[in-house]
Each structure stands twice: as structure tokens, then as C-alpha cells.
Amino acid sequence: MSQLDIAPKYAGVIWGLGNTFGVIAGYFGVALVGLILDITAKNWNIVWNLVALSSLTGTVLFVLWVGDKVVIS
Questions:
Q1: What are the CA-CA distances from residue 55 to residues 7, 10, 39, 48, 61 (Å)?
Q2: Which residues of 48-63 are buried (b: 16+ CB within 10 A; e: fewer)?
Q3: Cα–Cα distances in Å, from 60 out to 6, 54, 55?
Q4: How far is CA 70 from CA 1, 6, 66, in A?
Q5: Cα 11 to Cα 53: distance, rounded to the nearest angstrom
Q6: What's residue 52's pLDDT?
Q7: Which listed residue, 10, 40, 49, 66, has the most CB atoms within 10 A of its CB?
Q8: How many of the other CB atoms lie within 10 Å of CB of 4?
Q9: Could you report the per-residue pLDDT of 9-34, keeping only the tens digit for each?
Q10: Is 66:6 a contact under the CB 8 Å cutoff?
């Protein structure tokens, strides 16, 4: 399902906002991973567990909140 399926009229705005938040997360994520690795003596398991938790949370929220109807036409 894409932005065009949810709100065709505002697909560009929705995509732009999503991309902006993704870039911000990527920018600060690098510093956060470095900090976690420094604190935990280079324990990558914590980093990968946080990545998995983030992905799982996003998937669950998407499944719960997104329906099969066009919200804004």
C-alpha cells in the first residue's frame, strides 16, 4: 500500500513528511549506535535488538491503523 492508495490528493506531502522523518532518524541513529557501542563495549546485540524492536513496532502500528479505504480522495 502506498501513499497514492491512502490519500491520492496529498501523496506528495505524505511522502515528503515520511522521508523527512526517515532521514532525521538515520542522521541521529548513527550517533546513537556509536553511543550504545561505546557504553556496552561494542556489543552489537543490543543495537540489532533495538532495530528489530523498531521494525516490529512500526509493522504492528501500520497493520492496526491503516485500513483498506481511501481516506482522502
A1: 24, 25, 23, 11, 10
A2: eeeeeeeeeeeeeeee
A3: 18, 10, 9
A4: 11, 5, 10
A5: 28
A6: 97
A7: 10
A8: 14
A9: 888 998 999 899 989 988 999 999 99
A10: yes
